[in-house]
Amino acid sequence: MPPLTSHVGRRREAAQIRAALNDVRLVTLTGTGGVGKTRLAVATMPEAAARFAGGAVFVELAELRDGDLLPNLVAERLGLSDRSGRPIVQVVLDLLRDRALLLVLDNCEHLVEACTHFVAAVLAECPQVAVLATSRQSLGLPGEHVLPVPPLAVPDEDAAQSPLELVQYDSVRLLADRAAAVVPSFEVTSANAAAVAAICRQLDGVPLAIELAAARLRSLSPRQLADRLSRRLPILTGAPRTAPERQRTLRATIDWSYELCSDAEQLLWARASVFAGSFEMDAAEQVCADADLPADMVLDTIEGLLDKSVLLREERGEVVRYRMLEALREHGQELLGTDTAVARRHRDWIDRLTATADAEWCSERQLDWTARLRLEHANLRTALDWSLSEPGEAGAALRIASRLNEYWTLRGASGEARQWLDRALAATPADHPDRPVALSTCALHALLHSDVPTATKRLKEADELATVNDDDLTKAHRTYVHGLAEMIRISPRAVELAEAAAEGFRALGDVRRELHPLFIHGTCIAYQGDIEAARASLRRMLTLSQERGESFYRAMALFGIVFVEVDFGDIALAAEAARDGFVVGRTFSSGFRDAYHLEALAWVADGQGEHERAATLFGAAATAWEAAGASPEIAVALPHNRHKHSTRHALGAVRFAEFFAAGRALSDRRRVRLALAEDDTPTPGTPPGDLTRREWEVAELVAKGLSNRSIADRLVISPRTADTHVQNILGKLGFHNRAQIASWATHRRRPE
């Protein structure tokens, strides 16, 4: 969520929101900019979300400019990885379909059409999800409950009021709170009460206007501030103020704040508006500085804007970042106008940042770069979008989007990477020097989506360019992606292609790009029976990654060792690699990585004859796969099916389902302790607790031999809903067919 100062007032509005969410599933807070919609939504979230088992998820849309990426941003906030190959909006809907949560969409006004389509789909397909939106206009959907957010209550002009009476007004309490932040001794007294009341009235109770004005109390008394406001703002009458008039009041306050800034502060205000989301000091120095604003002045200038509440300060670990509220950013954008120099410097900064991150990825700085790139993702999108919108700049987008394959993968954003690459490829000429690598990179991301046809098409285009524009690096990269394609096709050619790619990168001294071909070679050649060659490739991969202090490929190498040893070699070595891989993978806070490594631990437990632990781990992995928007049936189908079948056969369908369900129900902390063998395998509950009452009804009807259509007729639901319930039961119990549901249901009684 955006960094916010303390929340003041709004109890009545918060109660209205909570009451509305008890009755309807879409509540939209509307109001002018700066009236406090976001702050109210954030303050209301904890209590409003308490009735949702899944809590609340906050999605800030102000940083997004392309409505097509709205589902991607929601997926990101939900922790989903975009790896299934299906439209990302469908992946999101599938996850939310059985979730009970409050989805908060903040600042919808610039993406109203995209928000309307997305919210309509959520409301139609996800019956337990409610949406709280903030926007300057309503979404216009059926059933939408619109709650206009008024300005804060202000004191009556005609009545003299004591300090105690004044602080009952939310506007006065906000002014006092923010004034105390700049003048710690500030309080409302008999001496300043009239001036404080006048300030709140003059600012129409608009929270952002009050906050901007309060910053001036560092150098002005309340009476001086009130006098200056009376000269700056429109003359107010006793008539009720309309929204446009309040917007003019805010605009006048912003204009006044701007005029009170120094020349350097005015320049920085305008130029910093180019950033999406937040930014760091080094970025401001590179993007905002020039001859008119030297880099050595940027720090002092930022401090000046912080003092004036134009910028907000937020701490991210050991780093301070800066953010501008949307109404102030919009003002900065207006000031910037059509000047492209700052936007180009912003793009060039992202170009340099991603180039450096790419060069240092395979090193001990990998985790630092992962964290930094996550924070800069909104700026990355802005830079790519500008490059594709500005004539003659698409080549930069092609270059930038072709970098950092591991980051896109780790973020679960291969689909977004494909979108940028597709747009950049369409906007650049066929003879562009970066096109061959961009084509094979686009194919790589398609393969990570299991989209082999698109990957094949892009690889064919890359092959056709090879005769015109090829070098050793481009050739090795193309060969590597061909090898991955053959691996997915389960073709023996994957071995020779991966080996050739690894040798090509090795000859160039490119250790980072050698690592994934080593994984492909090691895992594929094991299935051809050459275990020693498999071990050699994976040992080299592990050694190289350890020598460079990186974690991404180290975790992958350990997973590869499990993949080989659990079925073809040393089960003890597999167990050690599985545990180490889980620990290393956790450093990335990636649910997708958790799924892989929990899966590997389940294979090992089955191989060691610990079938109850294996079934529990399969259940824990199923939750992680589902949360990541992926499936083991695609990612690791052969070992997954083999070991899951072995575990079920050893335990029997009923006991397997019990332990599987117990694993699915584990919290993240309990999953970690189970994976590290710090907890005993949990005793399963009887019956599994995560089947809903409706799913129990469906399971019992399956046991009676009814088809999905017959179940739909019996329960008066749609056939599609019946299909969904059956699929949910299969997933929750770890089953593959209806017969297993029937067998399980006949041995179980539905909970009361």
UniProtKB/TrEMBL annotation:
<dbReference type="GO" id="GO:0003677">
    <property type="term" value="F:DNA binding"/>
</dbReference>
<dbReference type="Pfam" id="PF00196">
    <property type="entry name" value="GerE"/>
</dbReference>
<dbReference type="InterPro" id="IPR036388">
    <property type="entry name" value="WH-like_DNA-bd_sf"/>
</dbReference>
<dbReference type="InterPro" id="IPR016032">
    <property type="entry name" value="Sig_transdc_resp-reg_C-effctor"/>
</dbReference>
<feature type="domain" description="HTH luxR-type">
    <location>
        <begin position="684"/>
        <end position="749"/>
    </location>
</feature>
<dbReference type="InterPro" id="IPR011990">
    <property type="entry name" value="TPR-like_helical_dom_sf"/>
</dbReference>
<protein>
    <submittedName>
        <fullName>Putative ATPase</fullName>
    </submittedName>
</protein>
<dbReference type="InterPro" id="IPR027417">
    <property type="entry name" value="P-loop_NTPase"/>
</dbReference>
<dbReference type="GO" id="GO:0006355">
    <property type="term" value="P:regulation of DNA-templated transcription"/>
</dbReference>
<dbReference type="InterPro" id="IPR000792">
    <property type="entry name" value="Tscrpt_reg_LuxR_C"/>
</dbReference>
